[in-house]
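Notebook entry, structure prediction.
Reason for the run: the old model in the group folder had no record of what sequence produced it. Starting over properly, with the input documented here first.
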Amino acid sequence: MANEASQSLSLKVLVDEEKNRVVFAESDNDFVDVLFSFMTMPVGNIIRLTHEQASKWESGCLNNLYESIENLEVKHLQSVQCKDMLLHPRSAAEIYCRNLKLDFVNCTTNGYYACGALKCTFHPYQTACCRCGRCINDQMVKLGNPLSVPPVGGIFVKPTSRFMITDDFQVLPLSTMTCLTLLTELGAEDGTTIKERCINLGKDEVLKLINCSLTSMAPFSETVFKSPIISKTSSAIRRGECSPRSTNQSERAMKSTKRDAKITLKLIINKSTNRALYVEAREDFVDLISSFLTIPLGYVFKEFPCLSLRGCLANVHKSIQDLDVEFLKSEEMKATLVNPKLAPGLGYNKRQFIPIEEALDPSWSTVSSLFRMDYYYHPGVAITGERFMKGPSMFMVTDNLTITPLSPISGFSLINKLNIPIRDIVEQEVTIGEEEALRLLEAALVSKCVLTDAFILKEAKEEQ
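New structure, fully documented this time:
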């Protein structure tokens, strides 16, 4: 790994000092590689990193979901490893991201598991079976320092590429006319207030910048001038209505006999306000919503291109889509960013409901060409790969995705706390398939009333 002293990036930034706004930043491939890598990062890791910054992902209810898993006793999960898989989910592009100038992977384990044929493939989790058919044994491979930076340089973009990054995180090839257009849009045609600055970014500064991009349309300005810029975007989805999803959704859906599987749960509703209070659900529903933490951020933007998240991080995904492949290392790298997959072993039952693929295990030849490796014995119990939660179990999941073991007393206390008459409480059975699962995922990202928005208001609109 790169040492701490070398883990910093320099950017040239053009600023309008009169308006305290950044016009754009100019960068080489190093910063853009780091920025693009966040598209491959699972949502759970974004939440964990923002927590470490003493801040929270403000949109939706994913913070509640993450904290519920943190607080859930291990006895409710298949194993301690399953809990770690949800709180520290690994990325399918991890072996490439370890070579970034700023390494955000180093906070997780360096270990991979090997199957019986040591030079076959490596597995991020000790799942029961390798794709070659052999059992995963107790041989663990620990990745050491990179052998070298890849000979041709760069991770996702070519080493000779340079870019302009606008204040709202659009990544564009260098262009004089684009620069002049941005100045015009800012109302700074005479250029008397425009100055050039150089800024240095380490891990903490990049995390602050990413955190700002989750809530602001001007993360560079807020970081450089340390003053909030009022955002013109809203974080709320339209009540009872999901955003349009990708037009090729049906083409991408995986063909599997398991797609017909359903989850049933009991929805407890306040009849007079037509709002969900909580659901009584088995472990399969908690498996589903917990798996949202393992989904890469880029998949969210691909599946929901019109999602009204606060902030401008979606512009990074759109920039990658629009960027000519001549600036990127390859078509495969572009696909890794635009359509990221789950890390091997994270598929679990979510494959029945969320149409996202699981990546193949990295091969021995790929990993050995990038890293020094140490082999050692690591006894442990293989994870079965069927679910995260232990069953049979019953859970209570509130409208804002707080998960606790089911307790009728806790349910009654909630009803009492909200001053809802008992006669105003009704129960409704809900069945979940792929469409409902995707609707839940979308609501979890942007709504504070996930169950109400995903089920009640959507159904009311359909009846109308």
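Summary: The first strand starts at residue 9 and ends at 16.
The old model has been moved to the deprecated folder.
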